[in-house]
Amino acid sequence: MKRLLLATLAGGFVLASLQAVAAEHVVEISGYKYQPAALEIKRGDTVVWINREKRVSHSVLFSGSGEESERFFPDEKWSRVFDEAGRFEYRCGPHPEMMGTVTVTE
Ligand SMILES: [Cu+2]
Fold first, then answer.
1. pTM, to two decimals
2. Separation of 68 CA from ligand 1 center, angstroms?
3. For the CA atoms of 96, 82, 40, 65, what is the dihedral angle to 10 degrees?
4. pLDDT class for 8, splitting at 50, 70, 90?
5. Which residues make Cβ contacts (< 8 Å) with residue 25, sequence separation at least 6?
């Protein structure tokens, strides 16, 4: 039992140190959908949106700030670092029915 506890503690330390490193998260866009549409990340992480469509271009437009990416075409991508905690709602500039959120925690 004691050995198991030690192993669990060691695993916890490894996880904690891995989580301290900024991570990269991928949102794929296909069929006019952001996948996953709801993403939870840590402050400092990067989100990369990749266009997997056959021919249509998309963008990422943040509802709060109005910041918008360039339109990116099939096999192109756009990325952003999230340095602030919060909930960031976005949609696609040319296709406002496409919506997603990035929730950033400390
Ligand atoms: Cu679009």
1. 0.81
2. 12
3. -30
4. low
5. 39, 41, 45, 46, 47, 48
Using the mean position of ligand 1's atoms as its centre, give its distance from the Cα of residue 89 in Å: 15
Quote the ligand 1 centre to 55 CA distance (angstroms). 11
pLDDT digits (tens, 9 = 90+) for 44-81: 999 999 999 999 999 999 999 999 999 999 999 999 99
Please give the distance, rounded to the nearest whole angstrom, from the Cα atom of residue 86 to the centre of ligand 1: 24
The domain covering 22-105 belongs, at the CATH homologous superfamily level, to Cupredoxins -  blue copper proteins (2.60.40.420)
